[in-house]
Design a protein that fits this description.
The structure holds two protein chains of two kinds.
Chain A: H1 2-20, H2 25-70, H3 76-79, H4 82-94, H5 99-129, H6 131-146, H7 153-160, H8 164-189, H9 192-200, H10 205-242, H11 248-257, H12 261-289
Helix pairs in contact in A: 1-2, 4-12, 5-6, 5-8, 5-10, 5-11, 7-8, 8-10, 9-10, 10-11, 10-12, 11-12
Chain B: E1 7-18, E2 21-33, E3 38-42, H1 49-57, E4 64-69, E5 72-73, E6 81-84, H2 96-100, H3 102-106, H4 112-124, H5 140-153, E7 158-162, H6 170-187, E8 190-194, H7 198-204, E9 207-212, E10 217-223, H8 226-230, H9 233-236, H10 242-263
Parallel strand pairs in B: 3-8, 3-9, 6-7, 7-8
Antiparallel strand pairs in B: 1-2, 1-4, 4-5, 9-10
Helix pairs in contact in B: 4-5, 7-10
The chains are: A mainly alpha, B alpha/beta.
């Protein structure tokens, strides 16, 4: 720390003399480079410290959990402990029995959040196109949004049969309404000036939607996609609780029924890992798609 | 110049209706703008300047009266009329080039030749090499120049300028005024400028029209002397006759502020 301060003090003095010197052009250049370099070093150091702390917290948590489980500070039957979890995961990965579970749950989730976002956007477009419809629908959307939609689960299962279709339907019921509301609100928030620009060229309503409303809402649509990743997991896991014979939600409910909490917790770990990867992928997609045109 | 005026308003009245009630914005306004003429509309807020411009653009039909463009009634927005807004409203997701070409795209005229013309237009407006940049990389003055290119790209006969310089710094504003005037003169375009800035109106126009308020009506026309008309807007401000024009406009507006209500009776 003191080193840094001395360095900075030194540089400030150097900068004063370099700026005063009219012929000191190259010296000024090197000074600017040096200042930039020290700034970069400093921010790298901060990032490294944050990363190290994060890792330490994780290691500490796992270590404490392990110690607590082995020494019976907590009930190992209920809370298990990390080595048992990883042993379980390792075994099921090695014999391949976990992959179908992960596969089905991931496909249901991806299908859920992608379809949920697309359907929600389509409904929002419909509401935007027909203002009368949107006024009629408004109170119903509010009521539907405040309802716990997973409660509709049993109806989907009876109606669509126990299986992937009804699980995806439950996921849609969780994601579609909030997506519709968010995206429709964004559609209406687009600055009138942008609308005027294309109207003045004689744009049709379809052109207005395609050139202004939809691209202008793009960041919100992607952000909603991110939110829907989380919501879709809720729908899928609840759906699997109710009907499935396969999937991570099924493993959890099965582990609960046979009192194998190691299975329950290891499935949760897998869910956390896969959900994090999924979120990062969507975030990367967002960066790629909105590259270049971000407003300050 | 032909005999048909480029733009004509005949006994124009417009009423805005909303939940709170109906308000008369413009009453019995008649006005004609010759081909190639540059006319400014000035007046206090609430004199219906922007309403007149919107009616000229065909954004909505007038309650009463007619708007003629080249002798034909205006039925709606058309690429024949270009409109420049106070803010640039460039789409952040489109490159500069694509922003300038949005009008062409909407009218279904976006061809390779048209895009070449857009590039030429951008170059003429001092935006060489900016075509593939994005709006957030440009300064306010540059962005407004892109907006001008966007307006000119569809080759309109008439330009409507809705306070396009008011959001800019003085220095940039003067530069743009002269750029716009030069460009319009070179292309022989007819223009109607709405502004709050009396000096701007006097320096740029051939004719300044003072509107009164509550409801908007025509109050006075001031013809700008030939030498000021011909001069560049920056130079025009320094000419000896300029101060007189400015004073007469100023007096007119001052009276409006003081006794505006009696005028309307």
């Amino acid at each position: 720390m003191t080193d840094e301060r001395r360095e900075l003090h030194h540089e400030q003095k150097a900068s004063a003399s370099a700026l005063a010197d009219p012929d000191g052009r190259s010296r000024r250049e090197s000074l600017l480079q040096r200042l930039h370099g020290s700034h970069k070093r400093k921010s790298r150091r901060t990032s490294a410290a944050v990363g190290a702390t994060q890792l330490a917290v994780l290691v500490l948590f796992i270590g404490l959990w392990e110690a607590a489980g082995r020494n019976h500070w907590i009930d190992p039957l209920l809370f298990s402990y990390p080595t048992k979890l990883f042993d379980q995961l390792y075994r099921t990965m090695a014999d391949g029995s976990i992959w179908p579970h992960i596969g089905i749950t991931v496909s249901e989730t991806v299908l859920g959040f992608v379809l949920g976002t697309l359907t929600g956007t389509a409904i929002a477009a419909l509401l935007w196109w027909f203002p009368f419809l949107s006024r009629v629908c408004d109170p119903y959307l509010v009521v539907l949004n405040s309802m716990p939609k997973v409660a509709l689960g049993p109806i989907f299962i009876v109606g669509l049969g126990p299986g992937m279709t009804s699980i995806v339907a439950i996921t849609l019921s969780v994601t579609v309404i909030i997506t519709t509301i968010n995206i429709y609100n964004r559609f209406r928030e687009i600055d009138d000036g942008y609308i005027k620009v294309v109207r003045l060229f004689g744009a049709s309503r379809g052109q207005l939607f395609r050139h202004v409303i939809l691209p202008g809402s793009f960041p919100v649509i992607i952000a909603t996609l991110k939110v829907n990743v989380g919501l879709a997991w809720i729908g899928v896991i609840v759906g699997e609780f109710l009907v499935a014979r396969l999937g991570l939600g099924y493993l959890i409910i099965y582990g609960f029924q046979v009192f194998n909490f190691t299975l329950v917790l290891s499935s949760l770990v897998v869910i956390a890992a896969v959900a994090a990867v999924m979120y990062q992928l969507v975030a990367a997609l967002e960066r790629k798609l909105t590259e270049g045109w971000r407003e300050r | 110049m032909t005999d048909t005026p480029a733009l004509e308003l005949r006994n124009l009245s417009h009423v805005y209706v909303n939940d709170k009630g109906a308000t008369l914005a413009v009453e019995e306004l008649s006005l004609s703008v010759a081909r190639g003429e540059f006319v400014s509309l000035v007046g206090p807020s609430g004199c219906g300047k922007t309403t007149v411009l919107s009616l000229l653009a065909g954004l909505f039909p007038p309650t009463k009266g007619t708007v003629l463009l080249g002798g034909k009634p205006v039925g709606g927005p058309s690429p024949k009329v270009g409109y420049m807004l106070q803010q640039d409203y460039l789409f952040p997701w489109r490159s500069i080039r694509d922003n300038a070409a949005i009008g062409l795209e909407i009218c279904g005229l976006k061809t390779a030749a048209a895009m070449e013309r857009v590039d030429g237009l951008l170059a003429e407006l001092g935006l060489t090499g900016m075509g593939f940049r994005y709006p957030h990389e440009l300064s306010g003055g540059m962005r407004q120049r892109v907006a001008l290119a966007r307006t000119l790209a569809t080759e309109p006969e008439v330009l409507l300028l809705d306070e396009p310089f008011s959001a800019l710094d003085l220095h940039i504003k003067l530069q743009l005024e002269s750029l716009v005037q030069q460009t319009l003169r070179k292309l022989g375009k007819t223009a109607v400028l709405v502004t709050h800035d009396l000096a701007e109106a006097a320096a740029m126009s051939d004719r300044v029209i003072v509107l009164g308020r509550n409801p908007g009506h025509l109050r006075k026309e001031v013809a700008i002397p030939e030498e000021i008309r011909r001069a560049d807007p920056i130079e025009a401000r320094k000419l000896p006759g300029f101060q007189d024009v400015f004073e007469s406009l100023w007096k007119e507006l001052d009276e409006l502020d003081g006794g505006g209500d009696e005028d309307d009776g």
